[in-house]
Amino acid sequence: MKIRMLLGAASAATQIEGGGFKHTWSGWYDKGRIKDGSNPARANDHLNRWKEDIDLMSEMGIRIYRLGIEWARLEPNKGHYDAAALQWYRSLLEYIRSKSMFPLLTIHHFTNPLWFEEAGGFLKPSNIPVYLGFVDYVIRNLGDLVDEYITINEPNVFAVMGYNAGVFPPGLKSVPAAIRVMSIMASCHIQAYILIHKLRRELGYANTKVGFAHHARVFTPENKKNPWHNICAKLVSHMFQDALVRACILGRFIFPLRKYGKIRRGEYADFLGLNYYTRSTVSSLADGVNKNAPHNDLGWEIFPPGIAQCAAALYKLLERPVYITENGTCDNNDVFRCRYIYDHLKALSESGLPVERYYHWCFTDNFEWCEGENARFGLVHVDFETQKRTIKNSGHFYNAMIKNKCVTEDDYRKYVEPQEYKV
């Protein structure tokens, strides 16, 4: 199988950096809401081991890297920025570029400073200018080192998990609140898209690309002959992802979303960022899983054709290059990850879509939000007690694909063929 896209890796600041910053996930830990009791103040200690991690990434042949910044670290108090934190990010980005690696920078990835959260966070339209003020700061201070940006990561997951399911901070269980947050974050993305392009033109920077990372999945009825199941699949997909992506990339706010601010219909994505992990099988107005299909260690169905189906749906809305900004699986013993990666890349390669990049989630095992340290998604194993990094079998496979720009017959037999999914 030929690999026609660039292969890279992804991470998020809160999940790898460590440090005792006052943000929503440190507050969530303080409330005892992390399943295994893990403290995000430890994570991967990337705060101190960043050179080691970038060196390892470079040794594995990775040349595109999606990373995030910690808002609470850069702006610990409203309007007051930390010069040392800014210099750390500048040093990190400079080092990444010195390794001939190309950064894709995520501005918001699930985590709010506590001061922003206490002021209502993304539940209040009046906080949109606060978020845009942070975007302005990032572009003015890091814009010489980064050309490509993700404004917001997975606004639908952020809204549903934190404001409807109640398992992410702030732990609300309200459908109206989740819809409101999605609406406000969509407005934030559009206004940030406009602002980033405006600022970078004024500052004389070229090659600007801006998008958002859209979490999408395939929603299928449990019984395709059951009219109610079919209605539920379409309705849940609309509420969770379809309305949101139209708002974000086209400025079309349809039910149940509401437009905040003077936003015109247009095109607000220079690339289509897609985070894909699984398929949902539904029989009601709730999420569901096909129990007879392969699953990962978190119980998510493994459905490789879905990545191409979701990418095609995005491309149908707006013809832009596709970036797979996240794809990976929780495989704690690394026994089926090679097959997972191969099957998803194969589906993309055979799709005929303009998929230019694939960022594997994630580079190293890390702090996996409310799951803590017990859900391993990495190409590199991390012993959280010693912080020792060890390349997994899947990491060696990934390195071989990058080096050869294909999956050779020998590599297929060595890495993929021995592996089977769990049902």
In short:
The chain is α/β, with parallel strands linked by helices and 423 residues long.
Task: Provide the descriptors you would attach to this structure in a database record.
two-stranded parallel sheet, alpha/beta, TIM Barrel, 8-stranded parallel beta barrel, 12 strands, 423 residues, globular, 14 helices
Walkthrough of the structure:
The protein has 423 residues and is of the alpha/beta class. The protein has one domain: TIM Barrel (Alpha-Beta Barrel). It is built from 14 helices and 12 strands. The protein has helices spanning 13-16, 24-30, 46-59, 71-74, 83-98, 114-118, 128-142, 155-163, 175-203, 227-250, 305-317, 337-349, 393-404, 409-416; strands at residues 6-10, 64-68, 102-108, 148-153, 209-215, 218-221, 272-275, 279-282, 322-327, 355-361, 380-383, 388-391. Strands 1-2-3-4-5-7-9-10 form an 8-stranded parallel β-barrel, surrounded by 7 helices. The protein has a two-stranded parallel sheet with strand order 6-8. Helix 7 runs parallel beside helix 9, helix 8 packs antiparallel against helix 9 (175-203) and helix 11 (305-317) runs parallel beside helix 12 (337-349). The chain starts with 5 loop residues before the first strand and ends in a 7-residue tail after the last helix. The model has no long low-confidence stretch (mean pLDDT 98).
